[in-house]
Amino acid sequence: MGYRVVVAGATGNVGREMLNILAEREFPIDEIAALASRKSLGTEVSFGDKTLRTKDLDTFDFTGWDIALFAVGSAPTKIYAPKAAAAGCVVIDNSSLYRYDPDVPLVVPEVNPEAVEGYTKRNIIANPNCSTAQMVVALKPLHDRARIKRVVVSTYQSVSGAGKDAMDELWNQTKGMYVPGAEVEPSKFTKQIAFNVIPHIDVFLEDGQTKEEWKMVAETKKIVDKSIKVTATCVRVPVFVGHSEAINIEFEDHLDEAEARDILREAPGVLVVDKREAGGYVTPVECVGDYATFISRIRQDPTIDNGINLWCVSDNLRKGAALNAVQIAETLGNRCLKKG
Question: Average pLDDT for residues 85-110, to the nearest whole number?
Answer without folding.
Answer: 98
